[in-house]
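Notebook entry, cofactor series.
This is the third protein in the set we're modelling with a bound small molecule. For this one the ligand is NAP. I'm keeping the input format identical across the series so the outputs can be compared line by line later. Sequence and SMILES below, as received.
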Amino acid sequence: MQIGILGGTGPAGSGLAARLASVGFETIIGSRSKYRALEVRDGLVEKWADLHLPLLAGDNHDAANADVVVVATPWDAAASTAKEVAEELRGKVVISMANAIAKVGHEFQPLVPPRGSVAASVQAAVPQAMVAGALHHVPAKELGDLRHPCVSDVLVCSDHPEATAVTIEIVSKLPGMRPLDSGELSNAAPIEAFVSVMLQLNVKYKTRVALQLTGLEKHFASLEAAKAPAAPEAPAEAAGDESAKADPPAKGK
Ligand SMILES: NC(=O)c1ccc[n+]([C@@H]2O[C@H](COP(=O)([O-])OP(=O)(O)OC[C@H]3O[C@@H](n4cnc5c(N)ncnc54)[C@H](OP(=O)(O)O)[C@@H]3O)[C@@H](O)[C@H]2O)c1
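Returned structure with ligand:
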């Protein structure tokens, strides 16, 4: 699966590109300027030379030609950037990771974009695409640090079951990340807005927080158990399975 990133030259897009490429997704870093994308691609390839990252670079149209496309521009450019490549996005899964947040003095505040969330604005701009909101809470620096897993829950929401499934499939391949089906695209509003709380925590505690929800352990443990290969059958005798024992050969025949 090839993944393209619109606005892939920023910290979030380039970190995600490196992370996706590190698990084998051929990833196209998109930009308004092909040369800027090439520069960022070359920097990542050089930085992680031993990993031989399958990274490509192009303009946003090139990135939009991929199988799945991520929108990683600032929030106020997300819908218009997607609209510019609407033809390429037709019928595709599009992942919106943009958050509408403003810093007012020392305070981060969530903004309310048209239609309540950036993801909903993107969906309205490209109605023929299947938009999912995801990856809002993953800190860019950790995304791009391939020496460590990026431990975070990833809330995924969409009005299209296929977009949810594909996004979950992609995120589940990224070490440390746990994708969670968080319902319809209307939930993108609180998901995006919560980033403002996380940024406030980063400042207060001088760190970069990520999201980890509790209460899901049983669900994921039972999934793991279902996936585990069946235990090898015990030898018949040890199992006391009389029916498995061969009949003694009849004498004289
Ligand atoms: N930073 C994080 O930790 C983080 C984590 C999760 C989600 N996010 C979200 O991901 C998005 C990207 O974050 P970022 O920190 O990487 O942002 P950014 O550096 O401000 O922007 C990313 C890229 O978007 C392009 N861009 C900028 N202005 C544009 C415009 N007016 N029209 C079209 N493209 C434009 C630029 O690429 P070109 O100039 O090369 O076109 C830029 O490199 C944001 O919406 C953010 O809320 C960020």
